[in-house]
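Below: protein 1.
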Amino acid sequence: MYKAHFRLRELPFSITPDTGYFFSFRSYQEALNTLLVAARNGEGFIKITGEVGTGKTLLCRKFMSLLDADFVTAYIPNPLLEPRSLMLALADELGIQEDRQLDQHQLIKAINLSLLHIARTGKRALLCIDEAQALPLETLEALRLLSNLETEKRKLLQIVLFGQPELDSKLAHRDIRQLTQRISFHYQLQTLSSNEIKIYINHRLNVAGYQGPALFGAAALYMLSRCSGGVPRLLNILAHKAMMLSFGEGRQAVSARHVVLAAKDTFALARLSRYVRLTAIAGTASILVLATMAWLHFLE
């Protein structure tokens, strides 16, 4: 690809959540502080919401990586599960070796015994659920029942929900209002500002090993801001494609034109703003064509 061309150790704009690229912009840091304070206070339910692509999974992984040995963590990335399946997933995460044929009452009892053992060792058990907006209502109610497990001093299990704004709509359902009342800490992630975008782009390039002059000029950064709306995932996609275009043309910098062409080639941005459409330059060869040409040039 373009790693050798720009003298990079690795591709800087992968959309795979990698805590090595974690960027503490204001909203991320505030959310992380909320999570750490709530976890240390032993709160039962914590909720983090954000639009698609704002980095909830990365935040979740960073949060879990910062918890010390006093915490025993469990992580469920795909919660589209009925109650018993969720209990089994939690049991697996806690290392509970029980008959898979146990009924729900016996399963909760086994989980309770495991959590009590964790508490006796002076540790806290914490469950992180990603994509929590996918949780069925009956499974949310099962989570409430799990949150009832406690000693006289504190909850045996803390539960952190990471989800899209649709999670708030689901939590507003009357049938689970008891759970909603138990959410003591919550935070909504925001998108990056124009100033944060510049720092974000340079941060990821530096982590990937880039040491040259500014790769994205002011105009390119402006177009990244306009086209992405400050959503980190879209920033990564656009920056990656724009670098492919620059590489395909044998250039050492990314221009605003490269960003516009990248945006036009991105399905999630099919409906570009009028400003971007008017700014686009004719002759918009597809990213794949240019990448192929660049690869053939590299092989010569």
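Below: protein 2.
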Amino acid sequence: MTNSQESKGSQEFSGLRNFRELAGSFGAVAAEYDRGRPGYPEELFDELERFWGRGLKGARVLDVGAGTGIATRLLAARGADVVAVEPSAGMAAQFQAVSPQLPLVRGGGDDLPFHDHCADLITYAQAFHWTQPGRSVPEAVRVLRPGGALAAWWNLFDETVPWVRARDERLSAELSGRYHGYGRVADLTAPFAAAGLEVRRTQLRWQRRVSVEQVVDNLTSRSYFASLAPERREPLLAAERAALLAEFPDGQVVEPYVLDLTVAVARH
């Protein structure tokens, strides 16, 4: 092995180790995740149905990377026959505490513990970027029935809003090398078309009004905070709480999002 090959292999291993560290950090902040993370507007599911060409009611849905069940519960409310799929023990425990009536299977998107052609729809709410597309997309295609679809979506902070942009700049400086967004969603979902799926994408703008503490919980549940040692994390969260209170003295935050949705349909 040459020095350059050894260096490349070391970098790949380090990247994979860091990926696993970040992905594994959610279990310890499952309660904050459930309290702080935003839900999704009804328009999301309207658009999903429109792109797919059928309704969620009665559809067999696998919600992969379900976390604490935020999207799972909304899918069930639309009448879907939904099963949550979640790899983290901590997140699964929180899911079962909050939504004991909904079925949950331990597993991940790269190795779905389901038979071939058993699902109408596979969803990844804030989750597809935690999979390895070279494995997760073929797995989804294997599990989908003809005419089925997979849908991936992300709530992205709307950085056209000044206070959101200012926070992003602070965190980028404070957490250099660890702070990250989702990158280009078009790049994340490019493997869908490469797999022969019919792909449609849209963006929806929406906002929620929540307390400062819910926003802090939301930040706490982000991998770039959750994976920090407490002595590093707590001062940063305190500084963000102070910045929020300076921007919203009444303690009520209007938090803006751009919701990015991609639906990929297996027509045959």
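The two ends are 45 Å apart (CA to CA).
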